[in-house]
């Protein structure tokens, strides 16, 4: 018997994926060049960690500028990484200024666009998130183009007060303006997925490709029958099936794999199902990011500490009583501010935990952290004001030497956040001419 | 909805938007242009002459003059929107699409803008009601306007239930799938928010493998779908054909073409050649069915006519089963569809009764749970909402009791054709051992909830005094009259308050040590600010009616040392004191409540947000309910008989044409 062809026409796929990009205003966001001629032999990774509800603003900004700066109380847990981080001050996200206090600030965090006010029908972020631009530029190099992780399930319902579906508040990664990417919230499932990718079974390849061929053919039959607007839904499924097909091809031993893991995954490190306690859940998810980056299963990841308006109860922290969102509406009362600050600091501690893990993974002379960019941030500054001016942001890792870390950079008031994303994409090797409302790259970041 | 703004003046709800083909982002721009340049939409229509005005009409036209024309008239009207031509209801109705967009802006408080002259709340809601009901009336008189043919993937719960019933396994095959968000009327079966991410195919493939493995390990389950096996008289491909012939129609929920049988048989052959084991090959074949979009998507045949068409009997079977069961049609439904008489009113009624019958009680309860938890927001219990450690007595058994109380209660009303008004006020409920103790109800209880007659109706009975509802409308560590008032307005009366003006911080009422007394005072102080009072005059007094309940719904006569003051008022001024009177006051608004519930249920049944056209169905169902003591079957069967449930709209001619072009283009790929 002949081995069934796994490489069906990719035209449909390209068509599906390309359709959203055919719009001229998005074209400028396509990477100009792939991986710049670089002496760095290691892959560059990019992660964006999103924290809901903002920060206590008077305790966030470091004092001093340039390389001579002192960390603020909230950023204190990063002391050991002072030379690995970069704190940009005065960036804002203009696109998210319009609209309500939370949904816009979440869905628009990485797109820098204004989302449609919608309960579903014309749900649209009007952009592609920065991480997905990066993912697209290296899509063929790793088994997973990107990894989307979160702690909370998609928040249920639609918010009839403000006219937004809560889908918006539960997503930061968009690979089409009309498609937020589903997130995985169970660390055990993430682990199993990574494990399988890193230890593919060659015996299943034939049956998998038989199955996928039939599924693709069925999808095409269905696609022919439906009206034009519904074709897009089938295209999304086709795209999803083809991505899987490509990965099986990529990792299968028989065909000679075009990708191999950079590290080993021990089956013993499998996390428990899904712990009840918030801190454990967060730690396990951060472990998964580290594992994915270490093995090179993916180079792009987004993670949400919580969904928009998350009212996660932080009373596990000493001196804190109540939910995150409630406390973020502090009314400038010291009693609330202290707790709000503690919660912000806790998030930085978790961030520091991830940085530490990545720094402990050696990669030749360098470390995985050296070859990464790990962004931490929130879509609004002060939870009491819901304002996207002077956003709290930290970028860690040198991107293989492209980023000048160890600095606090104070920019002109209201410098576009998208300029930071332009710099990040450049350092990633996915340079764009323009990203959303960007006006150029940030000064002083790229070496 | 598939129509575009430029070709079809689709009227849409004040809570939803025009749909766009999801790939075509330009559509959004077209809609905006249509709003900004209303002449585009009006140009082809004849503007009727204005008749002499009725008094109400005069008042509402004055509203436009007073609050809109300052900016929206003259040479350079704001947003290029000139409203000066709207001096009668006929003119407004003639540009329904535009007015729908305008209504949303007014409803959501975006217009008139803060700095302008702002109408009083009453004035505003009178105007909104007048325009909305006029648009609806006009829509209902213009013939049936169903939604388009359905094309959506199964959501996670539907996937699990469908696999369960298809393979007859007791196993949650969809557990590892990504959770679905909500859209439209607020449910996770809404077409518009059932996205497909790159991760889905992989997840479906894993889930199918695990489910089939599970099913093959269970002989009882095997009997359900492995209807033939090879033996001396039966070669493997003959057995395979029998299995496929029996399995495909159930999985795809329709009759199967011979070509489709052959396609799956070819797959079986290929697998059998690679590894000559019947079991291995048939397993792969069935696994493939579960990953096929023909199984994963509810895909109705599009209607390329301009007129609405009835859905086919098989499509009706699926609409019925995903509505009342959240799962695929069973053999009896498929058989009725095969015989082509499911749409016969008598047969339909019989099937409806059978579907709600005892033998299907589990599936109906799934439906009750899916609907109730999303309508009431009680799905948040144990997820988005977890009480603070300081709130004592919360454990998993109590959480279970709380969670299932509204589900079992609602389920009884549905299956026994009970009165929907019981949802407001009832003399029975469902409790497990832990919840009964929580409520101080005496008697024998177990871990499983059971029905209990209530002896003290002043404290319990109806949704408003259920622990789950009271908890999800509280902060984790204290109760909030504001949140509870908002919950009643939104969930029971379907009249959500507009959002607070931007940059106004929420009233902090969440610190500890604030007594109920002083909270009331603080809220009253808050309402002295007219900007706050506009909405909080409606919200807060409602919530105070539930002050007798703690965070977990436990009864309290005193709160923080003071006797509870549970006096309050409805937005129309009706005063009450305590939950029993609050319920009576709400029963005074029963039509508003039933109308809201009908909208919610119709949105759930259709799996999409409603349009004004759908409100014609809502109105006639509400009429029927009113005439029949609000018996629940009038709601369910009313929906099943309604135009939007029974019909599918034609595809706009330009889109049909587009589809054909693409089809020709696509054929070269096969």
Basic shape of chain B:
globular
* Largest interface, counted by CB within 8 Å of the partner chain's CB: A-B, 102 and 108 residues
Number of strands of chain B: 10
Structural class of chain A: alpha/beta
Average of per-residue pLDDT values of chain A: 89
How many H/I helical runs of chain B?
Answer: 29
Helix-strand topology string of chain A: HHEEEEHHEEEEEHHHHEHHEEEEEH
Strand order of the largest sheet of chain A: 5-10-1-13-14-4-15
Unreliable stretches of chain B (pLDDT < 50, length at least 5) are: 1-50, 509-515, 658-670
Tally of individual domains of chain B: 5
Largest sheet descriptor of chain B: 2 strands, antiparallel
Structural class of chain B: mainly alpha
Tell me the β content of chain B.
under 5%
Q: What is Rg of chain A?
A: 22 Å
In the residues of chain A, how many domains can be counted? 2
Question: What's the helix and strand layout?
Answer:
The complex is a heterodimer of chains A (447) and B (670).
Chain A: H1 11-19, H2 24-27, E1 45-51, E2 63-65, E3 68-70, E4 85-92, H3 103-107, H4 130-137, E5 147-150, E6 158-159, E7 164-165, E8 174-176, E9 179-180, H5 187-198, H6 205-225, H7 228-251, H8 278-295, E10 300-304, H9 324-328, H10 334-360, E11 362-363, E12 366-367, E13 372-378, E14 393-396, E15 407-416, H11 417-428
Parallel strand pairs in A: 1-10, 1-13, 4-15, 5-10
Antiparallel strand pairs in A: 2-3, 4-14, 6-7, 8-9, 11-12, 13-14
Chain B: H1 26-36, H2 38-42, H3 55-67, H4 89-94, H5 96-107, H6 121-141, E1 151-153, H7 156-167, H8 199-216, H9 219-225, H10 236-252, H11 258-274, H12 278-291, H13 293-296, E2 297-299, E3 309-310, H14 313-324, H15 331-338, H16 345-355, H17 361-376, H18 396-415, E4 428-431, H19 433-439, E5 450-453, H20 467-472, H21 481-492, H22 516-526, H23 530-544, E6 558-559, E7 562-563, E8 567-569, E9 575-577, H24 578-587, H25 590-606, H26 612-627, H27 632-641, H28 643-646, E10 647-648, H29 653-667
Antiparallel strand pairs in B: 1-2, 3-10, 4-5, 6-7, 8-9
């Amino acid at each position: 018997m002949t081995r069934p062809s796994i490489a069906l026409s990719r035209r449909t796929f390209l068509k599906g994926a390309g359709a959203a990009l055919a719009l001229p205003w998005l074209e400028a966001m396509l990477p100009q060049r792939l991986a710049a001629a670089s002496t760095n032999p290691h892959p560059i990774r990019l992660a964006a960690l999103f924290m809901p509800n903002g920060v206590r603003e008077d305790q966030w900004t470091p004092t001093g500028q340039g390389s001579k700066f002192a960390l603020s109380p909230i950023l204190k847990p990063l002391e050991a990484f002072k030379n690995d981080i970069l704190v940009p001050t005065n960036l804002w996200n203009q696109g998210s200024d319009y609209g309500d206090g939370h949904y816009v600030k979440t869905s628009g965090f990485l797109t820098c666009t204004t989302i449609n006010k919608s309960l579903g029908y014309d749900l649209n972020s009007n952009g592609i998130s920065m991480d997905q631009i990066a993912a697209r530029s290296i899509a063929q190099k790793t088994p997973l183009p990107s990894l989307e992780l979160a702690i909370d399930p998609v928040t249920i319902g639609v918010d009839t007060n403000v006219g937004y579906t809560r889908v918006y508040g539960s997503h930061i990664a968009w690979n089409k303006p009309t498609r937020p990417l589903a997130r995985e919230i169970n660390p055990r499932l993430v682990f199993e997925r990574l494990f399988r990718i890193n230890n593919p079974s060659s015996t299943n390849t034939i049956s998998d490709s038989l199955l996928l061929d039939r599924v693709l053919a069925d999808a095409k039959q269905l696609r022919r029958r439906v009206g034009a607007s519904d074709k897009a839904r089938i295209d999304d499924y086709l795209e999803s099936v083809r991505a899987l097909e490509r990965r099986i091809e990529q990792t299968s031993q028989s065909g000679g794999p075009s990708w191999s893991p950079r590290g080993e995954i021990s089956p013993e490190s499998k996390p428990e199902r899904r712990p009840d306690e918030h801190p454990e859940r967060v730690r396990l998810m951060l472990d998964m990011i580290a594992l994915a980056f270490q093995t090179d299963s993916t180079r792009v990841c987004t993670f949400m500490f919580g969904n928009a308006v998350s009212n996660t109860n932080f009373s596990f922290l000493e001196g804190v009583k109540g939910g995150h969102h409630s406390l973020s509406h502090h009314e400038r009362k010291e009693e609330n501010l202290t707790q709000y600050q503690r919660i912000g600091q806790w998030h930085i501690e978790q961030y520091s935990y991830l940085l530490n893990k990545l720094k402990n993974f050696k990669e030749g002379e360098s470390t995985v952290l050296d070859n990464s960019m790990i962004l931490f941030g929130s879509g609004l500054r002060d939870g009491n004001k819901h304002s996207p001016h002077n956003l709290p942001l930290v970028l860690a890792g040198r991107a293989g030497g492209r980023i000048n870390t160890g600095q606090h950079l104070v920019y002109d008031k209201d410098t576009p956040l998208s300029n930071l994303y332009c710099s990040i994409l450049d350092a990633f090797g996915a340079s764009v001419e323009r990203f959303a409302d960007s006006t150029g790259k940030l000064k002083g970041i790229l070496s | 909805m598939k129509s575009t703004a430029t070709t079809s003046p689709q009227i849409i709800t004040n809570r939803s938007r025009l749909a766009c083909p999801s790939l075509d982002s330009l559509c959004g721009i077209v809609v905006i242009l249509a709003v900004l340049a209303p002449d585009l939409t009006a140009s082809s229509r004849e503007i009727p002459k204005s008749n002499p005005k009725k008094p109400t009409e005069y008042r509402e036209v004055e509203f436009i003059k007073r609050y809109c024309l300052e900016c929206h008239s003259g040479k350079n009207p704001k947003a290029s929107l000139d409203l000066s031509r709207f001096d009668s209801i006929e003119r407004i109705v003639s540009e329904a699409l535009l007015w729908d967009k305008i209504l949303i802006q007014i409803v959501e408080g975006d217009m008139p803008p803060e700095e302008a002259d702002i109408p009083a709340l009453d004035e505003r809601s009178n105007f909104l009601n007048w325009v909305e009901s006029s648009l609806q009336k006009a829509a209902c008189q213009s013939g049936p306007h169903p939604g388009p043919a359905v094309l959506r993937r199964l959501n996670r719960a539907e996937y699990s239930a469908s696999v369960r019933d298809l393979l007859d396994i007791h196993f949650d095959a969809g557990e590892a799938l990504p959770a679905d968000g909500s859209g439209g009327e607020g449910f996770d079966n809404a077409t518009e928010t059932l996205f497909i991410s790159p991760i889905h195919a992989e997840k479906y493939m894993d889930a199918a493998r695990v489910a089939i493995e599970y099913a093959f390990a269970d002989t009882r389950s095997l009997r359900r779908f492995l209807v033939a096996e090879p033996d001396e008289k039966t070669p493997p491909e003959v057995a395979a054909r029998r299995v496929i012939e029996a399995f495909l129609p159930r999985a795809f929920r329709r009759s199967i073409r011979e070509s489709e049988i052959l396609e799956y048989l070819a797959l079986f052959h290929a697998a059998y050649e690679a590894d000559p084991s019947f079991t291995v090959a048939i397993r792969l074949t069935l696994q493939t069915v579960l990953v096929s979009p023909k199984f994963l998507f509810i895909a109705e045949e599009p209607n390329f006519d301009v007129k609405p068409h009835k859905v086919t009997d098989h499509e009706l079977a699926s609409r019925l089963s995903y509505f009342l069961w959240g799962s695929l049609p069973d053999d009896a439904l498929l058989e009725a569809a095969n015989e082509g008489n499911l749409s016969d009113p008598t047969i339909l009624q019989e099937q409806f009764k059978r579907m709600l019958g005892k033998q299907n009680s589990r599936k109906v309860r799934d439906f009750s749970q899916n609907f109730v938890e999303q309508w009431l927001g009680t799905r948040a219990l144990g997820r988005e909402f977890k009480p603070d450690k300081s709130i004592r007595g919360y454990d998993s058994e109590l959480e279970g009791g709380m969670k299932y109380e509204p589900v079992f209660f609602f389920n009884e009303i549905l299956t026994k054709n009970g009165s929907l008004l019981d949802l407001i006020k009832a003399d029975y409920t469902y409790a497990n051992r832990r919840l009964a103790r929580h409520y101080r109800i005496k008697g024998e209880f177990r871990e499983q909830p059971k029905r209990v007659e209530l002896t003290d109706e002043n404290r319990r009975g109806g949704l408003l005094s259920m622990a789950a509802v009271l908890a999800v409308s509280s902060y984790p560590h204290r109760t909030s009259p504001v949140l509870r008032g908002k919950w009643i307005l939104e969930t029971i009366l379907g009249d959500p308050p507009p959002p607070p003006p931007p940059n106004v911080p929420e009233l902090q009422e969440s610190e500890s040590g604030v007594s109920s007394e002083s909270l009331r005072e603080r809220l009253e102080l808050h309402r002295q600010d007219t900007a706050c009072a506009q909405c909080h005059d409606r919200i807060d007094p409602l919530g105070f009616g539930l002050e007798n309940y703690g965070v977990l719904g436990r009864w309290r006569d005193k709160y923080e040392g003071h006797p509870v003051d549970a006096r309050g008022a409805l937005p129309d001024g009706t005063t009450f004191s305590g939950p029993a009177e609050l319920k009576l006051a709400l029963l005074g608004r029963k039509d508003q409540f039933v109308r809201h519930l009908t909208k919610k249920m119709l949105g759930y049944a259709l799996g999409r947000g409603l349009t004004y056209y759908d409100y014609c169905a809502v109105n006639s169902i509400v009429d029927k309910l009113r005439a029949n003591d609000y018996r629940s079957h009038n709601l369910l069967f009313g929906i099943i008989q309604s135009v939007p449930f029974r019909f599918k709209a034609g595809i706009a001619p330009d889109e049909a044409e587009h589809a054909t072009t693409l089809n020709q283009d696509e054929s070269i790929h096969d």
